[in-house]
UniProtKB/TrEMBL annotation:
The keyword Ion transport does not apply. The keyword Oxidoreductase applies. The gene is ugd. Pathway: Nucleotide-sugar biosynthesis; UDP-alpha-D-glucuronate biosynthesis; UDP-alpha-D-glucuronate from UDP-alpha-D-glucose: step 1/1. NAD(+) binds at D30, K35, T86, T121, E158, K271, R336. Coiled coil: none annotated. Keywords: NAD, Oxidoreductase. This is UDP-glucose 6-dehydrogenase. The active site is at C268 (nucleophile). One of its GO terms (biological process) is polysaccharide biosynthetic process.
Amino acid sequence: MKVTVFGIGYVGLVQAAVLAEVGHDVMCIDVDEHKVENLKKGNIPIFEPGLAPLVQQNYEAGRLHFTTDAKAGIAHGTIQFIAVGTPPDEDGSADLQYVTAVARTIAEHMTDRKVVVDKSTVPVGTADKVRQVMATTLEKRGSNVPFDVVSNPEFLKEGAAVADCMRPERIVIGSDSDSKEVIEPIRELYEPFNRNHDRMIMMDIRSAELTKYAANCMLATKISFMNEMSNLAEMLGADIEKVRQGIGSDSRIGYHFIYPGCGYGGSCFPKDVQALIRTAEHIGYQPKLLQAVEQVNYQQKYKLNRLISDYFGEDLKGKTFSLWGLAFKPNTDDMREASSRVLMEQLWQAGATVQAYDPEAMHEVQRIYGQRDDLKVMDTKEAALQGADALVICTEWQSFRAPDFDIIKGALKQPVIFDGRNLFDPERLKNRGFTYYAIGRGSSIKPVI
Ligand code: UDX
């Protein structure tokens, strides 16, 4: 099938490459000439396991194309994906200007029937807006070329995006029409991903749009709930890791997304929770649970700083902290809304220096903060330890899980670890002579009662 994808960002590029891989003929359009030229040369703008070879092979095989020419790109596909960004505007609502601009462009140039698919995470009601913008633009042209709008939210996770897209657990399709002209092309498009059993869940457009937000908000709720439990566990002298196993074994609760830590980050949870709160407020509903999810997460991002100031005091002038992990989670270089940013900014404010290491986000931290005397970006995790007053861990990279503790002890001024991801056994670290603070592990902190 011939497919056009607007927006070569995270979602658009992964989706386009995976569709090309199963044999579809995919044209990607972006306004950024530099990005398009780089992709043609095989330079992928993001770090994502497995994506670079997939893009390159399919580009070389002639199934994946990149262009800035909207008119030619629109002529290419029967299906037109909108996968452009929906950044938060000043009040946290999703900014739809890029989505509506694409809708307008499609309507300006289309000459045959198109099925327009909203892939971007968009508030409920956006498909109606897209339809309206397209109808108005076509009317201005004096054209009556038919089109349909479908919602098809994306559920991929960074770091596992290619696998998630290749083997989706579900394909949610929202359509207000059951006409063959809409459903058949979508079925044909996703047939290769639908082999063993039907993964397509059909529903009306508004339900599909809300499904995306509900999924992310549910996951964020699980995390904030566990973070709240971890704070209670700490004060009550209980160990949240034991509690996690105790509740996760109940199949109604499950083990996924109940890992406590120094807060969730990334491009989705913080933005989507906030956007759904704004949508609710806009229609006169106070979403108390979602507001609490956001507040708990906000506080949790300061958790490590609180532990550090309890130990070292408020004034950290002259102190150096070794930081392992900058990315918002492992297997990505993405630092959007990462807990490490709150940690570093607070440490700097208190006068400390940070010696940081991350397996992938070293360029990203320099891009965000530039050169500064109180940030030293180190080449290895061992180098980041040298002469520091303590080690702080913000991301659970695999390579941090079994470090040489003798090296850590020898390199730090004093053997103190603040672990925002509960990587180690507190008892074992205590026996090795470390002072170890983790999240919600009562054994490392004196209970309140
Ligand atoms: C998320 C959703 O999982 C995905 O379905 C959606 O399409 C986009 O948003 P992503 O942001 O890539 O994906 O990362 P995810 O693995 O969900 O982690 C998000 C954040 O939650 C990370 O900061 C992670 O450290 C944190 N997290 C996750 C926890 O703190 N505890 C957990 O148990 C799980």
